[in-house]
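Problem: given the chain below (391 residues), write out its structure.
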Amino acid sequence: MTDPYTAPGLTPGHLGAPVAEPEGLPPGRGPEPPDPRRLRTGLACCLSVLALAGVGGLAALAVLLLLPGGQEKAADFAGAGTGSAQVSVAQGATLTQIGQTLQKEGVVASTRAFTEAAAKSPAGTRIQPGTYTLRQRMAAVSALNVLLDPANANALTIPEGRRAEQIYAAVDQKLRLAEGTTKGVAGQHAAALGLPEAAQGNPEGFLFPSTYPVTGETTPLGLLQLMVAQAAKRQAANGVAEAADAYGRSPYEIVTVASLVQGEADNPEDMAKVARVVYNRLAKSMPLQFDSTINYALGRSTLTTTTGDTKLDSPFNTYLHQGLPPTPIANPGRDALQAATHPADGDWLYFVTVGPGDTRFTDSFDQHQRSVTEFNSRQAKRSSSPSGSGR
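Solution.
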């Protein structure tokens, strides 16, 4: 779950062209009385050359001081350090920002020592968000090694596709709170979460799956606000508003499509095709007939849907009700949002996952039924109560 950090590059410099040696005077034709004009000219040339040499030397010195390769060695501590310090790495923090925090807390001697250590490490840009316990006065490379080990991060990771109820439980567990605490906070402080008006206080679909740092001061409300803020950033980056205009839908509906895609596919290629099926079916006023929406209504996760399930009295039953479900059914990640805003090109109307890695898309109902029959046959071998499933 997790977004990449940017390490500053080390730009190689050039020391400048060497100053040319002054050329000798033209050979004379024998002893002649000194010419005052020639003496003055020669002296002027000599002084000019010396001046240019001085300027060139200063320029070269300036280049040496300005370029990374010519700078004095960055201030750095030696060893593993002493004492203790807690440092939080925020989602999306750059190496420079991390280094500045480390320097402020007395962990490293300078930001530059840390960024240079990270630039030399093949894994230097893989620091995960979280709260780390380090020591003060550490060598920059020692501090980097602590930050590069995810096991040292005190953080909460929300996987893609988790429902709000599951996220509430994960927050309670991480913060060691009584069961139901975070759900209560979400309900009581819905107006403070930063949700769009269309969500009507329901954060489903807007708790972005990622890794969030946790400290002793972290609260359920603070974590939920971080998730909602991150969702807003990702949705803007993936062009949700633009997709809404393109497909004649609201941004909230595009997020709902992304949640369906997240629930029905597990890789970017299939997600883009599922999104296309959604838009194709909506355009033809066909019911979506998604098992994932029924599972959401029933609060479960399963691969199969029974005939009885398809008669469920719920607005989330997309077998009975045309159009999108009333709300998102999960919290979509980056790939699902990308699929919903940039669906694949195709005329597919049906799909079914026959087996792991084998999702079949078609515009032919007969072909689809053959795939569903194959799916049911495979399921019958694993269970004594098979049931049909298809979209």
